[in-house]
Every structure is written in structure tokens, then in C-alpha cells.
Design goal:
This protein is an alpha+beta fold. The chain has 13 helices and ten strands.
Length: 423
């Protein structure tokens, strides 16, 4: 880390290195994850440690500069094997994606969040390319880290009401013209590719379509909107003005947008939960090392009940969510194999509810754990000597991204009512 003034002793800073933080994580997982998952986790960790050392990474760099190296190794997404673009990853699926998140987020949490936005463009391209070379080219760019992706759902006047968007798509010769405004879209000012939603009739979700956009096209106008909690991530506000989408880039025509949108929400939300979990482990690792080395009154502060018992509670909560996410991932992978990638509606709906439950719980876990761990470290937890500052920043917005806390509660409460009707 490069910092203004050192406030943490050398021996403590050295112990809090990435390699030791990974060791702390790994010591806690053998009873929870499979040997194959552990093998992949360690593979990504070793690459991250080597990359940090060999490139003198101090985590003040432009996070998007890391993408090509991580993409070349296949560490942007492992949810699919991507055989259609000749990658054919041997280790893939939701369980492997969970491991990728844990390793990459501990390397750099803001970088990990930016990757999460790219995967939101990857997934619809993977699901709806229909063999079209134009979409496959974009997909390969995104998966290999040669391109940056974003997704355009949120609008200034619609927020969480994703099915009544004001952005319109008007059929034109050879495709559709998009007009409207989007906002709070992670990566958008840096993006090469965007997946956008627009309706043939404004405010009518039944006419919504899904479109792939090259940000080089005329009609793409994007400015950065700064979110102070994540200063190294670029979020955007986009004005789409007669932006022509050729037919080859239509992922879903009007009428298919809402089904395409909702099919992606389960993995989007569980992906955010993975990120939340990784942030919690990252914060725990810093606090664990610090509390065992930092002395007050001639004793390591871990020996004081106020510190030790607080860490014990945080540690327990993080382990519980780890086990829940592992079980969800294991079950999801098994069901996808059993039903050949097309889940029955009742199972898909339950997974969607579970994903909202996990996103709700993990986001709160991240916020609480990062804050409490920083608090236990006192000045050492809030200065610029470690990546705790980044963990604090990202964790503050996790209840908002991917659907606010209230949206998750709404989804879960509706599920309760639906289940009651089946009695």
C-alpha cells in the first residue's frame, strides 16, 4: 500500500499481507467446501499474490488496468464453461464462481465489484447469443478481460421499478432505435459493451426488450456520477439518443425483456452475496491479525472481552453465511445439471427467493462486519495504511446495489404469500 503517513507498526503491516489474509481464509474452509473448490481457490489466490508482487500493486491504481491479466487466466467469470467461445473451463459453475469471488475480492474489493458489473453483461450474452458471431465476439471480449461491461436497468425516475421503464425502443429498418436516460450503472463510463433494457411503449413492461450495445456507436452519451464510497469505480449516467441497435445485437425483442431480466436476477443477487461474504472475510482477516499483534496494557487486544467476544460473534456470523451460500451453490449446480440448464418454474422461483434472502442477509453481514472490524482496529482500521478503507466503502452500499434491502424484503414477503396459497 502507498499511504500518506504510516500509522501501523511495520511488523503488523507485514503480517497483514495478502498471502497471510488468504491463509486465514483457507484455514476456515476445509469443512465447508470441496477439494476441487479449494484447489481452484488456491489457484486464483496464488495468481493474485504473484500479480501483486510482480507488478508492485499498491491498490491506488486504475482498477480496470487489472482486467486483462485476470481475464487471460479466466478469473472474470466461472459461472459457465464458455465452450461456445472456445474457452472450455474445466472448473466452472456457481460453486467455482463463489471461490473466484472470495479470492479476487480479497485482492481488491473495488476491482471485484467492477467485475461483478461486467458479469451482468456476460450472462445475458451467454444465454441469448443464438450462435451470432457479433454477440459471441462481445462475449469473448468480456470474459477474457479485453472488454469492460455494464448493464443499464436503473433510471432516474424509476429506480427499483424495473418493469416500468421510460427508455424506449422504436423499430427501425435493420434494428431498433433507443432513446432514454439510465443512471447508477457500474463501469458504464469505462465500458466497451452494455446490455440495456428499453420498451416499445414507455412505462409498459410487456413491451420491454433486451439489447447489446457497443459504446462506440453514435447515440451513446455517458458521464461519470461519483459515488464517494467507491472512488476507484466508475459509475455512469447515460443519455441514449437515437442509438441504433442492429438486429444482430437484439438479445430479446420487445416482449422478451422482462423474462430475460428476471432470469438473471437470481445469479446476480447471489453473486452480490458472494461479494458481500468476501468483504466480510477480508475485514475479519485484517482484524484477526491486528487483534493478535496489537498490544494495550501489555496484552494483545484479542485477550480483552470487548475485542475477543465481538470477533467471536462476527466470525460465527460469517461462517454461517459461508455455509448457507455454499449449500445454495451446490444445490443450484446440481439442479442445473439435472434439468439440463432449464429449471422448472417452481424450483426457479424458490431459488429466486433464496437468492434474495441471501443477498439481504449477506449485505447486512458485510456492513456490520466491516464496520465492527474497523472499529476494533481503532485508528488502524480507518486510516489509509490498509485496504480496510475500501472494505468500509464498498460495504456501505451493498444493501443498495442489485435491488435495495426493501426490494429484497418485498420479494421475500410475496413469496410467503405465494407459499400460503399452496396449503
Amino acid at each position: 500500500m502507498r499511504y500518506e503517513t504510516q500509522g501501523i507498526a511495520d511488523e503488523v503491516l507485514e503480517k497483514m499481507c495478502l498471502e497471510n489474509r488468504y491463509k486465514f481464509l483457507n484455514m476456515n474452509l476445509p469443512t465447508i467446501i470441496s477439494d476441487e473448490q479449494m484447489e481452484f481457490l488456491k489457484e486464483v489466490e496464488q495468481f493474485s499474490v504473484d500479480y501483486e508482487k510482480e507488478n508492485n500493486i499498491d491498490h491506488t491504481e486504475e482498477i480496470y488496468s487489472y482486467l486483462p491479466a485476470f481475464g487471460a487466466k479466466g478469473y472474470i467469470s466461472r459461472f459457465h464453461n464458455f465452450e461456445e467461445i472456445d474457452l472450455n473451463y474445466e472448473k466452472w459453475g456457481l460453486q467455482m464462481e463463489m471461490m473466484r469471488y472470495l479470492a479476487v475480492d480479497m485482492f481488491d474489493t473495488q476491482f471485484s465489484m467492477s467485475i461483478g458489473a461486467t458479469t451482468l453483461a456476460i450472462n445475458p450474452c451467454q444465454s441469448h447469443h443464438d450462435g451470432r458471431p457479433e454477440v459471441l465476439e462481445a462475449l469473448k471480449d468480456l470474459v477474457t478481460g479485453q472488454g469492460i461491461g455494464c448493464i443499464l436497468i436503473t433510471e432516474p425516475d424509476r429506480g427499483s421499478d424495473a418493469t416500468h421503464q421510460l427508455t424506449t425502443c422504436t423499430e427501425s429498418e435493420g434494428g431498433f432505435l433507443l432513446n432514454g436516460t439510465k443512471i447508477y450503472n457500474t463501469n458504464a463510463p469505462k465500458a466497451n459493451w452494455a446490455v440495456a433494457y428499453a420498451s416499445a411503449e414507455a412505462n409498459n413492461g410487456d413491451t420491454m426488450g433486451q439489447f447489446l450495445i457497443s459504446t462506440k456507436w453514435s447515440g451513446w452519451n455517458c458521464k461519470r456520477i461519483l459515488i464517494p464510497s467507491v472512488p476507484r469505480i466508475w459509475l455512469g449516467k447515460e443519455e441514449l439518443t437515437d442509438l441504433m441497435i442492429p438486429s444482430a445485437y437484439v438479445l430479446g425483442p420487445p416482449g422478451r425483456g422482462v423474462p430475460h431480466l428476471f432470469e438473471g436476477l437470481t445469479t446476480e443477487r447471489v453473486g452480490i452475496a458472494f461479494e458481500d461474504l468476501a468483504e466480510a472475510w477480508g475485514a475479519l482477516a485484517f482484524a484477526f491479525i491486528y487483534a493478535n499483534l496489537r498490544k494495550q496494557f501489555n496484552n494483545a487486544i484479542i485477550t480483552f472481552q470487548g475485542v475477543g467476544f465481538t470477533l467471536a460473534d462476527l466470525y460465527t456470523n460469517v461462517m454461517n453465511i459461508t455455509m448457507a451460500l455454499q449449500k445454495f451453490s451446490e444445490s443450484y449446480d446440481q439442479k442445473m445439471v439435472k434439468y439440463q440448464g432449464k429449471l422448472p418454474k417452481d424450483i426457479a422461483n424458490l431459488f429466486a427467493t433464496n437468492a434474495s434472502q441471501l443477498k439481504l442477509s449477506a449485505a447486512k453481514l458485510s456492513e456490520d462486519t466491516c464496520y465492527e472490524c474497523a472499529n476494533l482496529m481503532a485508528g488502524g482500521g480507518v486510516n489509509d495504511n490498509t485496504l480496510m478503507q475500501d472494505l468500509l466503502g464498498v460495504s456501505r452500499i451493498q444493501e443498495i446495489v442489485g435491488g435495495t434491502r426493501q426490494i429484497q424484503q418485498y420479494i421475500i414477503s410475496r413469496s410467503i404469500g405465494s407459499l400460503f396459497k399452496l396449503l
